[in-house]
Design goal:
This protein is an alpha+beta fold and about 250 residues long. The chain contains eight helices and ten strands. It folds into three domains: about 60 residues, Arc Repressor Mutant, subunit A; about 80 residues, YebC, transcriptional regulation domain (Alpha-Beta Plaits), CATH 3.30.70.980; about 50 residues, 2-Layer Sandwich (Alpha-Beta Plaits). The strands form three sheets. Strands 3-1-2-9 form a four-stranded antiparallel beta sheet. Strands 5-6-4-7 form a four-stranded antiparallel beta sheet, with helices on one face. A two-stranded parallel ribbon has the order 8-10.
């Protein structure tokens, strides 16, 4: 299976997140809390919580802070209750965008999201207007130069759905069903193949190529959305070409 490499986009997003580490901590703790509230505080039986905790540890968050967030969510400590919201719309160039939020004030959140779309030439759509273009899956990403044969063999053995090698730069994605993400990730790690990035995410079946000023507007919109306090994740089908990060 061939495709367009997401590697540059992943690195850009992570660089932006690192520059806003304090805000990232807040978002990670919200996800830990919601995962614990909806699926229970035992990470061994709650895969969403386990993934959220892994991300928090990867961001160098302390165990005490994480445990306190879990206790607040499960009622052992007093805390704020957040609601999950999803918004859908279009960025310039016909790029589809999904925005997942955790909020304690829906009026504020929808106003912030709508403002972002309008500010950068996009428009907020209705529920279901773009979600049908995306599918939920686990992705384990390996940087350019990784051992394709070893990764492919281990991924097949672990029960992954697909291995995508991007000819543009040699980066590799191992794709799994959402419920197989943790077992496949553990099996890959046991084989000595730790991914450079891993997550359960939404990916579009078909990307939309944008370049030049249009691509720059798309990047500005996505960055602005990701910087909003109530936004947890932003997904798009943008294939960003020349000049996107100018």
């Amino acid at each position: 299976m061939a495709g367009h490499s997401k590697w540059a986009n992943i690195q850009h997003r992570k660089g932006a997140q690192d520059a806003k580490r304090g805000k990232m901590f807040t978002k990670l703790l919200r996800e830990v809390g919601v995962a614990a509230r909806t699926g229970g505080g035992d990470a061994a039986s709650n895969s969403r919580l386990r993934t959220a905790i892994d991300k928090a540890f990867a961001a160098n968050m302390t165990r005490d802070v994480i445990e306190r967030a879990v206790k607040k969510a499960t009622g052992e400590l007093e805390g704020i209750s957040y609601e999950e919201m999803r918004y859908e719309g279009y960025a310039p160039g016909g790029v589809a965008v999904i925005v997942d939020c955790l909020t304690d004030n829906k009026v504020r959140t929808v106003a912030d999201v709508r403002h972002a779309f309008g500010k950068f030439g996009g428009n907020l759509g209705t529920d279901g207007s773009v979600a049908f273009m995306f599918r939920k899956l686990g992705v384990l990403s390996f940087a350019p130069g990784a051992d394709e044969d070893a990764i492919t063999e281990a991924a097949i053995e672990a029960g992954a759905d697909d291995v995508v090698v991007y000819p543009q730069d040699g980066s590799i994605d191992v794709l799994t069903a959402p419920d197989a993400f943790e077992p496949v990730k553990a099996a890959m790690a046991a084989a000595g193949l730790d991914p450079d990035d891993s997550e359960v995410t939404f990916r579009a079946d078909n990307d939309v190529a944008v370049e030049g000023e249009t691509a720059q507007q798309v990047v500005k919109l996505l960055d602005w959305l990701e910087d909003l306090d109530d936004v947890q994740n932003v997904y798009s089908n943008a294939e960003l070409g020349e000049g996107a990060y100018a």
